[in-house]
Description:
The protein is α/β, with parallel strands linked by helices and 413 residues long. It folds into two domains: 2-225 and 389-404, 3-Layer(aba) Sandwich (Rossmann fold), CATH 3.40.50.2000; 237-386, Rossmann fold. The chain has helices spanning 11-26, 40-45, 55-58, 70-99, 111-120, 152-184, 259-268, 301-304, 317-325, 339-348, 362-373, 376-386, 391-404; strands spanning 2-6, 30-35, 49-52, 103-107, 124-128, 201-204, 221-223, 246-250, 275-279, 293-296, 308-313, 330-332, 352-354. The strands form two sheets. It has a seven-stranded parallel beta sheet with strand order 3-2-1-4-5-6-7, sandwiched between helices. Strand 5 (124-128), helix 6 (152-184) and strand 6 (201-204) form a beta-alpha-beta unit. Helix 4 (70-99) crosses helix 5 and helix 5 (111-120) crosses helix 6 (152-184). The chain starts with a strand and ends in a 9-residue tail after the last helix.
Amino acid sequence: xxxxxxxxxxxxxxxxxxxxxxxxxxxxxxxxxxxxxxxxxxxxxxxxxxxxxxxxxxxxxxxxxxxxxxxxxxxxxxxxxxxxxxxxxxxxxxxxxxxxxxxxxxxxxxxxxxxxxxxxxxxxxxxxxxxxxxxxxxxxxxxxxxxxxxxxxxxxxxxxxxxxxxxxxxxxxxxxxxxxxxxxxxxxxxxxxxxxxxxxxxxxxxxxxxxxxxxxxxxxxxxxxxxxxxxxxxxxxxxxxxxxxxxxxxxxxxxxxxxxxxxxxxxxxxxxxxxxxxxxxxxxxxxxxxxxxxxxxxxxxxxxxxxxxxxxxxxxxxxxxxxxxxxxxxxxxxxxxxxxxxxxxxxxxxxxxxxxxxxxxxxxxxxxxxxxxxxxxxxxxxxxxxxxxxxxxxxxxxxxxxxxxxxxxxxxx
Length: 413
């Protein structure tokens, strides 16, 4: 079997995909990958047939951090994804024609690749890397980061706000998304959340333990648990010299101007009996670091987490789940995008502290870290539960089953 995988230009989406591809390769399948150009050499070393996505796609970067209004930020993010999508359609079509894959594995943030795979008509699956926006009457409406409903007033809030919020999503997303679908020759959709449910298989990279309880998940969804992978690198020598508990501070791998999270953390924890390690994969800021801290552009978190008491994070799904899988509680300071939803899930599970960005100060950050440290026993048990979902072997099983399943009718058939 040959599998063609296509990712967005984000390491946070590539790295969790790698163990699935390695498992497919271990089973004797051929893996072909199109991904971010900087990581092509490393992926080739793993044995994959790899080519970079086009530089034109990589050049279209997110700028949603430039606005504060949530709807305007969503509109900007949609504009980026649709501009990329127009370029993804011919690119994935060329890859399919050249490779004749048996299955196509698509990053959920590559809308053009997804509709091209749908038009292709063969077996295809989506990798869902962030909290699913698929609605349900059983959970809060997606987006604002509402706490789960508690009592009649909470349920009333959800009933009132759900149609309002989804109407906003629909106005912002449906027209540009259907323009992309027309470009690929597939029918228009009526509901924006269809973009997350059109594929025969959705590999959801989280655990049911991290999601809000609900009984109406689509049949296509498969919870495979968090998939954790770091590039194989030697551990930095300075890690061995650490003698105090570590607070790891992380920012987004796709730039969103969240350096203030590091700056405030350094100030708030300067007098604490901890070592502060801040990683800024989208570019390290030039912050004066106190004696108990260091700022690095990139350090594999697998080297740091065994020493960590708490992780302070912007709320990216990958960084948050990597910490929780290692049994480390989190302080989540959402900066935008889906991050409030991630933070609320950590809070609801009792393994994280949710600190709104507007309340971020050195004092509030220090207090949140103290509160998070008390959640360590719960985080350890939670991490064990998250690891029981099946991981990369389950994902490979489901991809193999998808290819063996009877052919579905093609579009128009």
